[in-house]
Amino acid sequence: MVHVALTMVVHPRRTAEMVQTLQSLMVLLPAASGFISCRLCQEADHANTLCYEEEWDTPEDLDRQIRSSHYTRLLTLMDKAAEPPKLRLNWVTEVKGLEYLEAVRLFKENKP
Description:
By secondary structure, the chain is an alpha+beta fold. The protein has one domain (2-110): Alpha-Beta Plaits, CATH 3.30.70.100. Helix content is 41%, strand content 30%. It is built from 4 helices and 4 strands, in the order βαββααβα. It has helices at residues 15-28, 59-66, 69-79, 98-110, and strands at residues 2-9, 35-43, 46-56, 86-91. Strands 2-3-1-4 form a 4-stranded antiparallel β-sheet. α1 (15-28) packs antiparallel against α3. The termini are far apart.
């Protein structure tokens, strides 16, 4: 799995426009091959900071998206940010959930 994390500080007067444009991009993603999920958040203490994330099944799925008009529009938005955006691409090899936390906590509680 590949996790894409983009953080952008946007101009205060353009926040609503940027959110709307990102939402319009998100609507199209479920039809893409290898798409897992996508989310958009605003930071609670910095309303002009947007956090946009995507998850893709394989690096090849992400590569197809990067070559698409979707990413052309995303790059255009990134150029409009008030500060240089931060982009992170994470190759995830293992994902664990609550069962991991439970196992660790039970192990700690059962230690002599």
